[in-house]
Structures are given as structure tokens and as C-alpha cells.
Amino acid sequence: MPRDAVDLITHTHVDERSGGVAYYCARCGAYMTRGSFGIRMNGEHEHVVFNPAGILYRIVCFTDAPGAVAVGNASEQFSWFKGFTWRIALCTGCGAHVGWMYEGTGAPAVFFGLIRPMLVERPG
Length: 124
Known about the structure:
This protein is mostly beta strands. It has one domain: Peptide methionine sulfoxide reductase (Metal Binding Protein, Guanine Nucleotide Exchange Factor, Chain A, Beta Complex). Helices cover 0% and strands 45% of the residues. The chain is built from no helices and 9 strands. The strands form 2 sheets. It has a 6-stranded antiparallel sheet, with no helix packed on it. Strands 2-1-9 form a 3-stranded antiparallel sheet, with no helix packed on it. 32% of the residues are buried.
């Protein structure tokens, strides 16, 4: 699968506390991202959010997710992060919905909000 806009990411605002951790897809075990890519958006690394249907998600934010690919058209409807559009992010290994890729004019210009229960944490 093509990486799409994911390759344009710059690694800023790294959360050093989780640097030695790697995250993998909970469904297929494919590598997803590293803890050193963790960032704080709106002051927090982890967010509890809900979509228009009322489904709750626990998401964690990363500047990069090499194991995810963004699909579909960007939308600004019901974005959880002001000034950012979103696209669905799928696991490159199994195609499971693992979160969203956000694009905006802020810093960082691109980041991922990954669904925490879709991630398995292991020492990196």
C-alpha cells in the first residue's frame, strides 16, 4: 500500500517518557509505531473522544505511524482537533481500522490519533 502523506511527517514534540516502547496492531501483530513518536495535542497524549454516533474512542497521538496508511478523502466534519482535517488510518498488515491521520496548518502539520485498544505495547 502507498504511504500517502505519512512520509511528510516531521518528528517534533516527542514524548520522551515512552521512547523505549513499540506499538503493534492488536489484530495481526504488525508494527505500528514507537513511543518516541508520541506527542501531546491540546496538552494531552491520550484523549477520550466520541463520534457523531456516540461511539467512544480512547486515542493516543503520534507524529508518525509507519504501520498505518491513510485512506479516503480528508474531512473537517466533527474533527476532534481544531484546525485539522482527518482521514481514516488502516493497519498496513491486516487493514483493520486503527485510528485517524490528521492534517493541518499547526505544528505538527500531520499526526496520527491511534485507537489505544487497537495497539499492543512491547519493549522497543
